[in-house]
């Protein structure tokens, strides 16, 4: 009886676990599916009292995004440009800085790391006024360069803090053995250390891209029309187009696709990187 009761209890908790997983997936995926359906419906079908899952899809909302006066294509390009360049520069500077902090023995290292983490934890809205004043004097208001500089600051702290944990986990004996064999600093870093932290680099890259791609506050307040990014454009043209939710849904889906595609391509490395960062941090 005890064994039978144990097996029944095990089956119950197993079923409960799967039920929780299924419900969680539904809650997470449902808004995306709902927006995707609206983007392929006419305005009348989207706000019909009847829930229709089978309908004739239309691409009129996607066509309006790139053919009307919304200039969504330019804003989409701005998002791609700003996200890519801010992430690339953050990786170039942040990975090397993280390696230096991991290997250099200085008394103030912990203070430096805490200051980096503290800068990342400060609400971004607090920097709006200083950025606005500085960018006005430097002529960086409504420019892609200005957004790249802002995103670089926040991404850089993320890269340094995350990658330092991965470098700490790599045994220094490997580097010392390579140096004994005649390898220089360049070879040790790029041929030995960096390949071992590939999962960490990939997961950090994804996080930087997602944070830059989804950033809303700075583009909203520091750009106008020239350097406006896609997330802001979706909100702006929705009001200009009398709340055309079909266009809003289509724009939201187009904003989601690049992130989903990139995460899908690197999911193997990302899973390892997230797990490693959690265990090391």
Q: Please, could you describe this protein's structure?
A:
The chain is mainly alpha-helical. The chain has two domains: 2-39; 70-280, MetI-like fold. It is built from 14 helices and no strands. Helix 4 (72-103) runs antiparallel to helix 12 (230-240).
Report a brief summary of the structure.
79% of the residues lie in helices and 0% in strands.
SSE diagram, text form:
Layout: H1 2-39, H2 43-46, H3 60-67, H4 72-103, H5 109-121, H6 128-138, H7 144-168, H8 172-180, H9 185-196, H10 198-214, H11 217-222, H12 230-240, H13 245-265, H14 267-280
Helix pairs in contact: 1-13, 3-13, 4-7, 4-10, 4-12, 5-7, 7-10, 8-9, 10-13, 10-14, 12-13
CATH class of the largest domain: Mainly Alpha
Low-pLDDT runs of 5+ residues are 277-281
* Count of domain modules: 2
What share of the residues lie within helices? over 70%
DSSP strand content: under 5%
Largest sheet properties? none
The number of helical elements comes to 14
Q: How does CATH name the architecture of the largest domain?
A: Orthogonal Bundle
What string gives the helices and strands in order? HHHHHHHHHHHHHH
How far is the first residue's CA from the last residue's CA? 45 Å
Principal-axes geometry comes out as globular
Characteristics:
MetI-like fold; single chain; 14 helices; 281 residues; disordered C terminus; mainly alpha
């Amino acid at each position: 009886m005890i064994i039978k009761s144990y097996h029944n209890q095990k089956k119950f908790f197993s079923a409960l676990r799967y039920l929780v997983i299924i419900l969680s997936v539904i809650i997470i995926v449902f808004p995306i599916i709902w927006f995707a359906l609206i983007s392929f419906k006419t305005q009348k079908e989207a706000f019909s009292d009847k829930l229709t899952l089978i309908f004739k899809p239309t691409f009129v909302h996607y066509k309006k995004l790139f053919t009307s006066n919304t200039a969504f294509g330019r804003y989409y390009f701005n998002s791609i440009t700003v996200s890519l360049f801010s992430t690339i520069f953050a990786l170039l500077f942040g990975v090397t800085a993280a390696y230096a902090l991991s290997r250099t023995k200085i008394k103030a290292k912990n203070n430096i790391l805490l200051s980096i983490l503290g800068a990342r934890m400060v609400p971004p809205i607090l920097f709006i006024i200083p950025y606005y004043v500085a960018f006005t004097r430097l002529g960086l208001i409504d420019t892609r360069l200005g957004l790249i500089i802002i995103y670089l600051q926040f991404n850089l702290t993320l890269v340094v803090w995350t990658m330092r944990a991965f470098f700490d986990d790599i045994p220094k004996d490997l580097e010392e053995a390579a140096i004994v064999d005649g390898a220089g600093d360049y070879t040790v870093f790029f041929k030995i250390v960096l390949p071992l932290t590939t999962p960490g680099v990939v997961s950090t890259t994804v996080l930087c891209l997602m944070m830059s791609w989804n950033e809303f506050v700075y583009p909203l307040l520091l750009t106008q029309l020239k350097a406006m990014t896609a997330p802001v454009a979706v909100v702006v043209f929705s009001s200009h187009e009398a709340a055309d939710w079909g266009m809003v849904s289509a724009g939201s889906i187009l904003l989601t696709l690049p992130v989903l595609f990139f995460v899908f391509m690197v999911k193997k490395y990302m899973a390892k990187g997230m797990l490693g960062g959690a265990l090391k941090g």
